[in-house]
Amino acid sequence: MVSFIGAGPGDPELLTIKGKRLIDSADIIIYAGSLVNPKVLADAKKDACIYNSAGMTLEEVLAVMQEGEAAGKKVVRVHTGDPAVYGAHREQMDALDKMGISYEVIPGVSSFLAAAAALKKEYTLPGVSQTVILTRMEGRTPMPEGEKLLDLARHQATMVIFLSVGMLEELCAVLRQAYRADTPAAVVYKATWEDEKIVRGTLTDLAEKVKEAGIRKTALTVVGDFLGDDYELSKLYDKTFTHEFRKGVEP
Ligand code: SAH
Q: Is 221 a pocket residue for ligand 1 (Cβ < 6 Å)?
């Protein structure tokens, strides 16, 4: 059984207990070295074989898994954040299905959640936005019809943009066609790592500030009025509002 593990955003203490147990007992570890903090592997077995997938092709990764399984070794595949978000994880699972190798997936703390924590903000403020759009800009991977940044921006929802901080100027220019030019926006670089950085601004000045900070990769851009201070209080804790677990008081 191959275990796909979400390693979390960086801080090794944000690994799940289950993920850590599997990593610490693995014979073969394949990890995405470009983004996974090597500290996540600090307690791996001394004789574990560790592969950095950054320099490997899909075929090479699969061959390591197949040989490990055939030799009765415990194989773990460690992805950054949660593997379900831009993890290129599905193609590996499908190949394992074809090879008749079973697998499990251990979720992790995605960087978009670590970014909200770093900012100390909530993405879903009542009266502001109740929807979070996770997306990216078109790069080598084209965006499907209907998912162009401008199409998504028209919803005025909270937006989290992965993999695109290198194109921030263009990104903000597109977003300004749908959001107000003074909509708050922020870039979170290496959320939860020791060298985490946060740059705050608006859709008008963020790109310049991020350039000055020298941030070019491993960062998320978040956009929306959830970064501001105007919102309605939640119904969940409203004293005049009754729900399953609490009786409301008469207003
Ligand atoms: N599966 C990962 C995302 C992989 S795609 C997850 O769930 O987080 C890689 C992109 O994720 C990076 O380009 C960057 O946009 C974002 N990212 C990953 N780790 C990050 C971190 N610690 N801080 C900020 N952004 C991060």
A: no
Kindly state if the Cβ of 9 falls inside 6 Å of ligand 1: yes
Mutate to test the pocket of ligand 1, among 40, 79, 111 (most ligand atoms within 8 A of CB): 111
Q: Whose CA is nearest to atom 25 of ligand 1?
A: 219
Is residue 36 classed exposed, middle or buried when 0-12, 13-18 and 19+ CB atoms within 10 A define those classes? buried
Tally of domains in the chain: 2
Question: Looking at the structure, do residues 101 and 123 belong to the same domain, yes or no?
Answer: no
Q: How far is the CA of 196 from the centre of ligand 1 (A)?
A: 13
Our measurement of the distance from residue 143's CA atom to the centroid of its chain's CA atoms, rounded to an integer in Å, reads 18
**pTM value?**
0.94
Q: Do 46 and 137 sit in the same domain of this protein?
A: no
Return per-residue pLDDT of the chain as tens, 251 residues: 999 999 999 999 999 999 999 999 999 999 998 899 999 999 999 999 999 999 999 999 999 999 999 999 999 999 999 999 999 999 999 999 999 999 999 999 999 999 999 999 999 999 999 999 999 998 888 889 999 999 999 999 999 999 999 999 999 999 999 999 999 999 999 999 999 999 999 999 999 999 999 999 999 999 999 999 888 888 888 888 777 787 777 66
